[in-house]
Amino acid sequence: MRSFSNFVRHTAKLLRIRIGTSGILFVGCAAILALSPISIGHLPEIHADTATTTLALTDASDTEAQINQSNAQIAQLKQEIAQLQTQLTATSKQKQTLQSAITETNLNIKKITTSITLTNAQITQKDIEIKKINGNISTTTSETNQVQYEVGASLQALAAQDDEPLALSLFTGETLSQLFDDAASLDSLRIGLEQKITELTSLKTTLQTSKTTAQQKRADLASLQQQLSQQKQGLAIARDTQTQLLAVTKNQESNYQALITQKQAQEAKFEQDLLTYQSNLGLKVTAGSLPPSGSQPLQWPLDSIRITQYFGNTPFATQNPQIYNGHGHSGVDFAASPGTPVKAARSGIVLGTGNTDLTCPNASYGKWIFIKHDDGLSTIYAHLSVIGVTQGQQVTTGQVIGYSDTTGYATGPHLHFGVFASSGSEISSFASQGCKGKTYTMPVGDLSAYLNPLSYLPPAQ
To answer: What pTM did the predictor assign?
Structure first.
């Protein structure tokens, strides 16, 4: 029996139990239990409250039903959003007319509204899931305390039995047969104790897993709440765009077409101003300063990608030499309905922001953001409705920095995304010939500093 002494004290040390003459002090994860001496064969029996257990099972069943119902609602909303996106894509490919523009705007507003409903449903679901996990944590904690109590009682019984010398037992009249019976009982108690310790270890693992899961669910919830805020801002932008479109065109197709013609004329004048200025700029791209083509240092600036115009001498650029002066398109255009969140393609410093419409409406970038990265590249995001960052601000990859719209030269809602060689570009100011007496302030660069964004982005989604 003396061999049990080391087992008892080693186990007590592992479980943070102090064994003394007055009993065992058990330090648990939820409570401190002071146990009085207990003899073998008289261990306390701990029974769960039947009513409490039944109530917990009922709550768990109700929670599971709520989660299933929420999943069905979320699946239906996602399907509706996918259908609206299909309609939006088809409408954006149609001939540019006032009616198609109004239809596209209405579809976008409906899509954002449905997305807000979806996000609210996902937030509700996360709340339910967190409630369920908290219930699991509470149940596991209760079970852990119970097993801890039983382990403490068993250890105390082992310690008490081990403290009685063999000789003393014989002198008190106990027979060898009784001693062997006691030894067998002690061995049975030891086996039961080992099982309880294994169960306790499993419960603690379950508890830690549940806490980790709950922490992740709370992080997901915070992300969804931020997404909801962004969607509400996007909805306000989309509705404002709709109001402005109807106000400018007065719901007349001729006014809409005249607006497009005016934008194209202003853009052509701007491109000539820019080309003249850049030709005398004297900026040079430093050799070896760029990451290898295809290395994918940048991430897509939108969640959903559909390219409407590529870099360089695209068919549109070739067919409209009066706009691009034969130098091609300086970036990539992505379809982006008004109010779509725009994200930083890589971590970096915001070198500047601006709005060319304040100089010459409809002529160029409109509202823009220019970010310098740590790999020799800089990126520009143009035609925005809202600029969500400031000069000098540090941003991270994927951070929402603004929202898309149709500011500047944009005959339809989209995001212009451009990539510059940092060594051959800068934010500079130059006079506007199209709008006399005004000065543009915006990113410019040597012609060799304009890079094809697709050379540094992941494969098309």
So the answer is: 0.71
